Amino acid sequence: MFEFLKGLFLSSAAADSDKLGSNADPIRQLLFASQSLREQARLVSLDEASGPLQFMADARQLAEEGKLSEAASALRSILQSPKLETRIQLFAWSGLRELGEKPEGRLAYEVLGVVVEVPQEGAYDTLAAYVDGSARYLNFSGKAVFWDAPDPAIKRLCQALVDSTIPASGKAKERTSLALPRRGVQATMLTRSGPYVIANPPQTVLAAGAALMLELMRRAQQGKSRVE
């Protein structure tokens, strides 16, 4: 799987230019899982790829060769994988949209994850939650907590954050850039149709995000973490 998306850890970035949560940080960019096939190949390690990642690599190669229907078939194969990670599903749909396919029906705008960006001391905290129970918290200081382990409590908090955005979804707009906000708080809903952003989300979203962030920090401080 993604070489830097494993387990739970708390660590500091080595340099300001590569600081976690910065505009240039690939980890922050991948939270949205909305990259093109070429960008996916650039940002994601496909060394010794297998399963869904191999299909991603195959799809990119086929698309570059002009074999668009075969590329789409490879991406659709990903969606048939059992216990598919939320971000992999979003990556597959990002590729399918690039190839001209769109999700249909009620699944098109189902919220599969949320990324909340909050200004802090001239920088931003970024919190991401996914319906499979995985989560990411990138602190403005350059530290981070990554959670992938199956855990009912964390999964409930992730789902609560996702659910909290739905009442405000009517004012969401398509997100066309992954650059950090110029000002204020943003909540981005991740769907099969792409990312949609809510500027200045309601307090219910902030409260659900804070509950998840605090629990992730509590787990890390208890030593249930792995430094990489």
Q: Any key phrases for this structure?
A:
single chain; 228 residues; alpha+beta; 2 domains; eight-stranded antiparallel beta sheet; globular
Can you offer a commentary on this structure?
The radius of gyration is 17 Å and the shape is globular. It has an eight-stranded antiparallel beta sheet with strand order 1-5-4-3-2-7-8-6, with helices on both faces. It is of the alpha+beta class and 228 residues long. The protein has two domains: 10-27 and 108-221, no CATH class; 37-106. Helices cover 36% and strands 18% of the residues.
Please sum up the structure shown.
By secondary structure, this protein is α+β, with helices and mostly antiparallel strands. Helix content is 36%, strand content 18%.
Describe the strand arrangement of the main beta sheet, using strand numbers.
1-5-4-3-2-7-8-6
Structural class: alpha+beta
Helix content: 25-40%
Radius of gyration: 17 Å
Average pLDDT, rounded to a whole number, is 87
Measured between the Cα atoms of the first and last residue, the distance is: 15 Å
- Tell me the number of strands: 8
Number of helices: 7
Helix and strand element order: EHHHHHEEEEHEEEH
Largest sheet: 8 strands, antiparallel
Approximate strand percentage: 15-25%
Overall spatial form = globular
Count up the domains: 2
Extract low-pLDDT stretches: 1-17
Helix/strand layout:
Elements: E1 10-12, H1 26-30, H2 37-43, H3 52-64, H4 68-79, H5 86-98, E2 113-120, E3 123-130, E4 135-138, E5 143-147, H6 152-165, E6 173-174, E7 186-191, E8 194-199, H7 203-221
Antiparallel strand pairs: 1-5, 2-3, 2-7, 3-4, 4-5, 6-8, 7-8
Helix pairs in contact: 2-3, 3-4, 3-5, 4-5, 6-7
